Every structure is written in structure tokens, then in C-alpha cells.
Amino acid sequence: MAILTAPVATRCRPRRRATRRSTFYGNLRPQLYRLIESESVDPVRNPYAPGAGQRPPELTGRDRELRQFEVVLERVAHGRPERSMILTGLRGVGKTVLLNTFRSMAIQRLWGTGKIEARPDQSIRRPVASALHMAVRELAPRHRAPDRIEGFLGVLKAFAQAETEPVKGKAVPRRWNPGIDVPAARGRADSGDLEIDLTELFVDAASVATDLGVGIALFVDEMQDIPADDVSALCAACHELSQSGGPLIVVGAGLPHLPAVLSASKSYSERLFRYARIDRLDRSAADLALLAPAEREGVTFTPDALDALYQAADGYPYFVQAYGKVAWDIAPETPISADDIKVAAPEAEGELAVGFFGSRYERATPAERDYMRAMASLGDDPVPTSTVAEELGRKPSSLSPARDGLIKKGLIYSAERGLVAFTVPHFGHFLRSQPV
User: Fold this and answer.
1) For residue 303, what are the contacts with CB-CB under 8 A and spacing of at least 6?
2) Which in 30, 48, 266, 367 has the greatest CB count within 10 A?
3) CATH top-level class for 363-432?
């Protein structure tokens, strides 16, 4: 009897499950029903990652920059002099992602690394001290040279504590303990003059790296926001390094006007750094950024869908990820089609309008918003400041506060003398689509 009843029970169970399942699904909207029934496009397995500085699942279109940095690492490892490196580009092109990738490459070579994000209202003294402290901490466990490292940490502590702040018209030391458990050294990197101190600190850090047979890399994001005096100090310290050939490099990333900021600080800066302009992806790289992660999940796109996605994203890496993510979530099955993109595009644009464009627009004052709307009405290319003034019916000098405020907030930049442009791609289109 037991042998006969088992098959009967097995045949009955699927019917009961199927009945409950069809009843449950019958209450859902048809498109949600198709999504759940299909195992090809699962939102949980969505590979796309739009986010600030978040590495995409497939880093494409940056082979040239990766090879350049590989050469820098190799040359420094062989004791060859090498310039520090600067990445520039609009927001959303992947500068921070590339900066983090460079750092990972240095870590794989067992270098000491540290990273800072510059702020317009903050001296780089504390952030650089913390970053170099981190770099030395990475090196210390791998090298038996405690006296050498402790000696440098004493200099680093003195450098950190030499920061001053204005109090009643006088410069007084800031009370700050950087958490370095050694006595502060005296007479080295502690003068209070950042240019002198930073140069001495970099030279000592490079000397430690030479003794340990490794390199040290300092990564600086949003480099255009470093205060003017600090930019001058950083350039001077890098200049000293370039002459001594020490194994310490600075890798910076910033907006397109960063080279002009550096050049205004030190006339030799154009020869001091290796510059790499990061731009939108070409068609093949954008397609690969979509196809490679999707195909690892058993999903693909039709050629028409890829056409539509490239037209919408315009090759900008952040937009590629944003549109790809929404298209994946909406598509009921593979391959993802052009019709799926038509449905997904308005939702992706709505998310960008709130998180990518809108959050920046809200930071502007009413006068600054008027200035940006006037820029947008003139097109998407860099526009003369005089033309913006004409559009607003104002004198150019009266608009200087609004223009300078937008530059400080990182919403526009001076493409060249007398010209301004948006730092965010498609920002003009976004403004033109908004009600006045």
C-alpha cells in the first residue's frame, strides 16, 4: 500500500500548488504577472549601479588611462622620475571611479595609499596628514623598520598640529590631536607655512618609501575645490618631488577648469602634471558597459534597444547605468527591446531630474537660478558671460556674485576666459524642461 499511495500523493500536490498560484497571480496587474512568471529578467539580479563614485559592473572605455597609470607605477618602481597625474572632466563621466581604480592598482603593488576629497572652505593640511598617516599604516605591517616609520610619524604629527586659525585678528594654533601615538618632531614640517611644511613632509615621506622599497600615492578628489593658497603649496611640493625623483605621486581628479586653476597658481604646473581628459564613452564602450554585465546574468539587449539607450544616455557613464537599471527593472523578458526602453526612459529621466539634476538646482539661490536658466536658453555649449548678461538685461559686473557663487558650488565652470559652461552634462536640457 505504501508503494501505491506515494505516486498518487505526488501527482496531487502540483495541482494544489498550481491552483493557489493562479488564484494569487490573478489579482495582479498583467505586467507584474509577466515579470514574476519570467525568470530571465530578475530585478534582484539587476547588475547596473548608478551612484556617486560607485564602480560600474563593467569598466569600459578607459583602457588608455589605465595603461598610462600602469606605466607611472612601473616607472616609479624602477626609480625613474615620473610626473603626478590629473584627471579632468564633467560630472558623471567616471573620474572618481577611475581614481578609485588607480588606488586599487597601487594597493595591488603593495604601495601605501591615502585619499582626500577637497572642500573649498577647508585647508588640506589635516586631510593630507590623515591620508599620509593611512598610507604609512598600510606599509608598516609589511616592513620591519619601526624606527624609520616612527621618525616620519613624528614629523607627520608636527605637520598636522602646525595648523592655525584666526582668532581676534591673530593666527593661533588649532587644538587637534591626529591620533598618532608618537611625540611630535620639532623643526621639520612645522613652520606653519603650508608650502614649506608640505614640501618637507612630501620629501620625508618619499625618503621613507625609498628606504622601504615601495611607493606612496596620494589621491585627491574634487581637486578644483582646494583653496588657492593650498593649491600653490601642493604644486610647490609636487615640483620638489619631480626634481628629486622620490617615489611619491599625487593623483588628482576635478572639473574641466582644474588645469586653469593649477596654472593660475604656479606657471610651471602645465609641465608638472600628466593631464588626462575623461569624456563620454564611444558607442562600442557604452554597448559593452550594458551587454557584458547583462549577459553574465543570461540577459541581452536587441540592437534597437542599444540604439535607443545610447541616444538617451549620450555615452555618459552615469546615464548609461541609470537608464540600464530602469530598463532592466521594467523589461518582462530577454532580450530587452526598444519598446522596453520607451517605457523605461520617462522613469529614468524622472529619477535623474530629482537625484542628479534637481538636487544640484536646489542648492542655487534665486539669482543663481536665473543665471543658469539664461545660460540654458542660449544652448548647451559654453556661452560668453556678456551674452548671459544681455539675456538677463543686466550689466556683466552686476552678475559676478551669481556667477562666482555657481562656480564655487561646482554647478558651472569657466571653460576659458569670458566663457561659462555647466559642469553637469544635459543640465541645460533639464532647465529648459522645467516650468519658469
Assistant:
1) none
2) 48
3) mainly alpha
Q: Is 1.10.8 the CATH classification of the domain at 283-362?
A: yes
- What's the pLDDT tens digit per position in 242-301? 888 889 999 999 999 999 999 988 888 888 899 999 999 999 999 999 999 999 999 999
Question: Model confidence over 181-207: pLDDT tens digits?
Answer: 788 888 899 999 999 999 999 999 999
pTM: predicted TM-score of the whole model, two decimal places: 0.84
The topology (CATH level 3) of 63-277 is: Rossmann fold (3.40.50)
Q: What is the grid cell recorded at 143? A: 616592513
